[in-house]
Amino acid sequence: MAIRIFNHHARIIAASTALAIIAMAPGHASAQGLFGQITKRVKQAVQSEVTNKAEKETRKATRCVLGEADCAAQQRQRNNNGSANGSSASADLTSGPSALISPYPGSVEQSREYQDYTDYPRVIGMDRSRHAETQVLEGALTRLLYNNPKGRSTLELIRNYRNALEARGFKVDYEVPNAKSWILNIREANGMIAYGTDVRYFTGKLRYNDGTAYVSILVYREASGFGRTNIHILQTNEMDAGMVGVDPSAMAAELERSGEVNLKGVFFDTGRATLRPESSAELDTVASLMASQPQLTMKIVGHTDSTGSMANNQALSLRRAAAVRDALIARGVDGQRLHAIGMGSRDPIASNATDEGRAQNRRVMLVRQ
């Protein structure tokens, strides 16, 4: 297609340029000199035309990924035509189960899986052995895999996806910008495919209808230039407690209902009590809630999984609870309204026999006093 466009424009430009030069050329100009001028002008004009077209296509691609309505409609039409002709055109998600984001133009869908309700281990970190740390979620799950369009870098692809999501209020929880040797068991953790050394990944969440959509995207490229994009979307029917980082009223409602809230938006470095930067949104919301209810007092309860000794787990859980308390005090909350407690591994909410269960057991709870 690109070659045909190039040749078409080249013929038009060559003819018009030749006429212009012949009209301007002096009578004693040699045929050889005239031909050289024509050739030079044609090359310059064609190069300018191709450059302008490339810039236009890049801008169009970005608008498509951002979900521009007319582009989405054109993409659907192309997909329908492709299906009728038996080709493997990429699907448009604006009318699919996620209704959140369209694939980057030129991407070719390789597989699609949808489940109405299941559990999904979302990768939210990496331990010292470069294995995945996960957060287990439940809801409707969409898994999509695309072959990347040729000539597009992993940076360009993943940045466009992220920009499109952030335009809808998406908040990133965790990202790996460009790791040469990344999570060893990513396929075992959540089913994503990753090969090569150019791997980029991010995950986060946004409000969607009356619930929460957790989106994880991984883009990779092999040395040969071949690459794929994994898109996983887990949708819940209700506002997840992890979304309280953007809505204090949701946290207040959960406290009123059950008397406690699991701070799923609070993250620590593995084996430590160091809060990660992506915990800020959740902590800001807790501080806002405390400010809106001056009589409210809270227990901050840290929990661990069963890995390690009881004594170490007890100490770690207390340090993590204390770190949350200190972060809230730094945000203006009166320390007398907050009481840090460490439970270690004594109160699991899932089995410690699996990675998913251990991930659920590592948590910090807010408990109303």
Can you give a write-up of this model?
With 369 residues, the protein is of the alpha+beta class. The protein has three domains: 2-64; 97-235, no CATH class; 242-368, OmpA-like domain (60s Ribosomal Protein L30, Chain: A, 2-Layer Sandwich), CATH 3.30.1330. Helix content is 39%, strand content 26%. It has nine helices and ten strands. The chain has helices at residues 2-24, 31-65, 69-84, 154-166, 186-190, 248-258, 280-292, 310-330, 355-361, and strands at 108-126, 132-147, 171-179, 198-208, 211-221, 227-235, 260-262, 298-303, 338-342, 363-368. The strands form two sheets. The protein has a six-stranded antiparallel sheet with strand order 1-2-6-5-4-3. The protein has a four-stranded mixed sheet with strand order 7-10-8-9. Helix 1 (2-24) packs antiparallel against helix 2 (31-65), helix 6 (248-258) packs across helix 7 (280-292) and helix 7 crosses helix 8. The protein starts with a helix and ends with a strand. The relative contact order is 0.09. Mean pLDDT is 76; it is low at 1-10, 12-26, 61-73, 78-97 and 239-246.
Alpha-beta content class: alpha+beta
Estimate percent helicity.
Answer: 25-40%
Tell me the strand order in the biggest sheet.
1-2-6-5-4-3
Q: What is the number of E strands? A: 10
Give me the number of helical elements. Answer: 9
What is the makeup of the main sheet? 6 strands, antiparallel
Give the overall shape, derived from the CA principal axes. Answer: elongated
Mean pLDDT: 76
- Percent of residues in β-strands: 25-35%
Computed Rg: 27 Å
Q: Segments where pLDDT lies below 50 for 5+ residues?
A: 1-10, 12-26, 61-73, 78-97, 239-246
SSE ordering: HHHEEHEHEEEHEHEHEHE
Head-to-tail CA distance between termini: 68 Å
Tell me the number of structural domains. 3
Region (Disordered): 75-112
InterPro entries: Bact_OuterMem_StrucFunc (IPR050330), OMP_bac (IPR006664), OmpA-like (IPR006665), OmpA-like_sf (IPR036737)
Domain OmpA-like: 255-369
Protein name: OmpA family protein
